[in-house]
Specification:
230 residues; mainly alpha; Serine Threonine Protein Phosphatase 5, Tetratricopeptide repeat; 11 helices; 79% helix
Length: 230
């Protein structure tokens, strides 16, 4: 099996949540690309995806090691603004954010954004995710305006690419709901969460992670609303 087949199978398994299968395929992709010095971009991309899989499985030490290797390989491409380098920095930022290492994650997501935004168009889907991760880190660090601006820019790109409904739009509604909760504005949070819930009910499977995120935020909102009741 060649790299294209392994990468395609790995991407499908990752989207479908088949973590073990995804890891198997991305390891095969890493092995295939490792044997060719002219395939540095493919090797970096394979390591990036392998890191994503391991992070989803909660194996953060392995995930970070592969994310750092993805960055190192991408740097060997010799282009400081190569899109693969921006992708690799994004992968490293995600692993660090998952571990609560917000300072390091913020630095690397900024590096990623700087590189990817030099190549708009083809990289727009990833730019949207970079902006949303930057917003989430800012939210966790209490910088609510920075979070709002990043969420708005990232969600605007998502809406342009994917439309105003579906999982991406529902995810954005929940992000803004979480932001308004952090600001102490339960009425505005309720409006966003209701919007997100309607989108989730319109076709997102019950087992989807966004369903659990909605329930988590709804419980927080109920507590906030009760605390404001005279």
């Amino acid at each position: 099996m060649d790299w294209d087949e392994a990468a395609a199978e790995g991407a499908t398994a990752l989207v479908e949540g088949r973590v073990d299968d995804a890891e198997t395929w991305w390891r095969l992709a890493v092995d295939d690309a490792s044997g060719d010095p002219d395939e540095l971009a493919r090797l970096s991309f394979s390591l990036f995806n392998l890191s994503l899989v391991q992070s989803q499985a909660g194996r953060f030490d392995e995930a970070e090691a592969n994310a750092r290797q993805s960055v190192a390989v991408a740097q060997r491409l010799g282009e400081p603004f190569h899109p693969m380098l921006g992708t690799a920095f994004f992968g490293l930022a995600m692993v660090q954010a998952e571990q609560g290492r917000r300072g390091e994650a913020e630095l690397n997501v900024a590096r990623s954004g700087e590189i990817l935004m030099a190549h708009p168009g083809l990289n727009d889907p990833l730019i949207a995710e970079v902006l949303i991760l930057a917003g989430y880190i800012a939210l966790e660090r209490g910088r609510h305006l920075d979070a709002e601006l990043a969420f708005r820019d990232g969600c605007a790109i998502r809406a342009r690419l994917y439309g105003d409904d579906g999982t991406d739009a529902a995810s954005c509604a929940l992000l803004f709901g979480q932001l308004e909760l952090a600001r102490g504005r339960p009425a505005d949070a309720r409006r966003y969460l209701n919007t997100g819930h309607r989108m989730l009910e319109s076709g997102v499977p019950e087992g989807h992670p966004l369903q659990a995120e909605y329930r988590r935020l709804a419980a927080l909102l109920e507590r906030a609303e009760r605390s404001q009741t005279p």
